[in-house]
Amino acid sequence: MDIKLSVIIPLYNKSYSIVRALDSVLSQKRSIDELIIINDGSTDESLAIVSSFFNNREVPFTVCIIDKDNEGVAATRNLGIDKARNDYIAFLDADDYWSSDFWRARYDAILHNDACEVYSGSHYLNGKLVTPYVGEKYGIENHFFIRSIFGSLINSSKAVFKKKVLYDSGLFPLGANVAEDLYLWINIATNNSIFYDSNPSVYIEVQDDDSRDKRVGELPLPILKIYPKVKFSSLRVYLSFMLWKHYLRAIKTRDEKFIKSSDNILRPLNRFVINFMKVIIK
């Protein structure tokens, strides 16, 4: 079986963390085959740092560095998918990093069950373990949406995808600021098999930056586009949980724009609960 991996790093103003991400790719015990770094119009020294990192450095994989105007992370990832030469793709955000076992673990999972379309696993978030399982898990997840309530099964730095499933599921949607990646994960999980390894090999670091300012007041894309269309199902339960979680956070932060938008989506039967929670949290 010919299993080759292309890694895509979208880069925007991550001069403080990009070297750590690159070091983690270079330190893989099983080498990747292609690295695509796309600078999305950074205004800091990110591009110069990347260029310097690979200057006169021999690496066991091909490196492609692309510089373009700012279009957002969805368009940047989609460009990386188009440029990728291999059948398996992983994304790595420039402020996250992998343990040296990441690709070897995903590779072994593919060998274990090559019929799946996505291979994912647990991760650390700012140093804290995030897993939807109490015990160990190594195999296909048959209850993706219910399990996702307890912790994310897929995110942009911890999964390996078959390239075909990304195209078949519509790629990353353009023009959204909140949860455009989750929108794609939902489309993938609705019709495809997900393999999960609860052994953590990914470190996700959430930093406050100017990209988060654009998200204030906006509803997650799956709530806007998917929630109104689905009837009672595990997906509906998961999206309801997501909506309430974001709603309660908006109450705490007094995000009136988000609260108003959410009120238009939540069912009238929930009005009493909404008003009660507003009183309690205030």
How would you describe this structure to a colleague?
With 282 residues, this protein is α/β, with parallel strands linked by helices. It folds into two domains: 205 residues, Alpha-Beta Complex (Spore Coat Polysaccharide Biosynthesis Protein SpsA, Chain A), CATH 3.90.550.10; 66 residues, no CATH class. Helices cover 38% and strands 18% of the residues. It is built from eleven helices and twelve strands. The strands form two sheets. The protein has an eight-stranded mixed β-sheet, sandwiched between helices. Strands 5-12-7-8 form a four-stranded mixed β-sheet. β2, α2 and β3 form a beta-alpha-beta unit. α9 packs antiparallel against α10. The longest helix has 20 residues. The model has no long low-confidence stretch (mean pLDDT 91).
CATH architecture of the largest domain, please?
Alpha-Beta Complex
Largest sheet entry: 8 strands, mixed
CATH class value of the largest domain: Alpha Beta
Helical segment count: 11
Content of β-strand: 15-25%
In CATH terms, the superfamily of the largest domain is Spore Coat Polysaccharide Biosynthesis Protein SpsA, Chain A
* Helix percentage range: 25-40%
The number of domains is 2
Features of the shown structure:
single chain; 282 residues; alpha/beta; Spore Coat Polysaccharide Biosynthesis Protein SpsA, Chain A; 2 domains; eight-stranded mixed sheet; four-stranded mixed sheet; 38% helix; globular
